[in-house]
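To whoever picks this up:

The parser on our side crashed when reading a file containing two proteins. I've narrowed it down to the boundary between the first structure block and the second sequence. Both blocks are reproduced below exactly, byte for byte. First block:
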Amino acid sequence: MTEPRIYVAGHRGMVGSAIVRQLSTVGQSGPTADGPSVTPQIITRTHAQLDLTDQAAVHAFFAEERPDQVYLAAAKVGGIHANNTYPAEFIYQNLMIEANIIHAAHTHGVRKLLFLGSSCIYPRLAPQPMREDALLTGTLEPTNEAYAIAKIAGIKLCESYNRQYGRDYRSVMPTNLYGPGDNYHPENSHVIPALIRRFHEAKVNNAPSVAIWGNGTAKREFLYVDDMAAASVHVMNLDKLTYDQHVLPMVSHINVGCGKDIAIGELAAAIGKVIGYTGEISFDPSKPDGPPRKLMDSTRLNTLGWNARIGLEEGLRLAYDDFLLL
């Protein structure tokens, strides 16, 4: 079997770099439908080399490289503050990136593509745990609506090219991710990296307390990024008949989560323990909490043979080790 040429869009991001690690370690999980496992040729481009919001540049890249598969992990991402402050950038950049890549993949004959979305596609008050068929059944969370709409558009792009042109473009919806390569910006990061930085700085500075946004009762599910990468490769490598029988025609995407959630207050205490911070933890209810609960129903993916392996405590320790390398 010829080595597949696999383009990982966003290979420097947390998820994209984890997918590259996964592909480099296990290759094409085998045996595949076409024969034994093989080591892929991984294609990457930095933002300086290829602006994914530039349609002409993206088409020229696909014409030159002719990838067989695409993992679309490139995106503009951020936490509640960033999403709420920069909605125009979040909707514009994400729409442009996914539209350019998916259309170029189709135009240049890419056989398989995997689009990575987000759990924020579901309604703010969706029944818990959130099933795939909850999509478009209610109002989105206002603080990240722009990002969520862009991700929903990505799902529908894949669905539309599959329906009209017979492509095999799949979508996976990860829960909240964390781990090596995360963004630890003090304002624009997600909750786990933000808390890791805050508790670490409090420990170093002997601060008496750490303030957490919200009242601490909102519950979230967290998945270590290398588990997400393993799930992505697993879904990409499922034969089309198996995938279609378990996913289509009921839905056009598949959830990826660990099946457990935790209150933000409990999460903060767990992070403080990993870091060794012994001060007080306080809460600021004037700050937004986001949805009261976000737990994914990953039954469909579990039925297809994948389950998360890295627990939260182990994952937090690995994430803190990564932070210390910065």
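<<boundary where parser fails>>
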Amino acid sequence: MADRRVVAETAEFTASYDLSPDDVGALTGELLASLAGAWPEKYRYVGIEIAGESLFSNIARHIERVVFEASFGNDAAQMTAEYGPYEAGSVFFVSIDRSTGMPSGALRIIGDSPRGFKTLNDARSAPFHILPEDVAEQHAIVDRGTLWDVGTVAVLPGHRSGAGAVSVQLYRAMYLSALQHGIDHLVSIIDAVPLRKLVDYLGIPFVPLAGSAPGPYLGSPMSQAVYCHVPDFQPRTRRHRWTVRGFLARKALSRLARGSDDDALSLIS
């Protein structure tokens, strides 16, 4: 994959989940212009890693709010309350549809922020009741610097087909960035419906976090706290291509496991 850098613009930055469509379009256009010529013309969807303090990161927050408000009733005020404490540790991967010049999806990573990891903090309470020390012991997490929290994954309506192109691109970008940063462990809390697709069809090696059971979480009637061992990610997804369900998702797995579209990604290094 080519080495292409995104420079974070930090002047006068305020995290916002409630941009107007015009503001989103203007920010997205400015971001694409800053990376003009970065990708071959054949790619409709391009993925960009964006620092959490960049003005462009509000594109991702807008996507989060739109998707989670429609799905779970999480409006801008609730998103700010839930994720505001973790903004200092957040990095975003954003997918943009170049045919429209508008964003299509976003994935948030939370590193070891001053408030720690949202998943580990939230999982202490009902319905999960997991202690961070149990997570560390059961999943052999020795260094918190090797842990990332997948805080959100959100794909806008109209971009949820095409063999999961947008979500696959976001997970692929996250995986490659994790390798760059020496990340061995992922935790997250994921709604049961997308989680089944991620595990059954894409073979992403998510397992219940510290053996926990699923339950309701932030408006989702059934979510699961999960763990993923990053070194297992590519071997597992490659092997999954030869299963029955993997065969059904073979085009998506070609992107995820083999990196067939890695030139459509621009990662900070």
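After patching the parser it read the second block fine. Strands lie at 45-51, 90-97, 102-110, 147-155, 185-191, 206-208, 215-217, 220-229, 265-266. Residues 21-266 form a domain with the Aminopeptidase fold (CATH 3.40.630.30).
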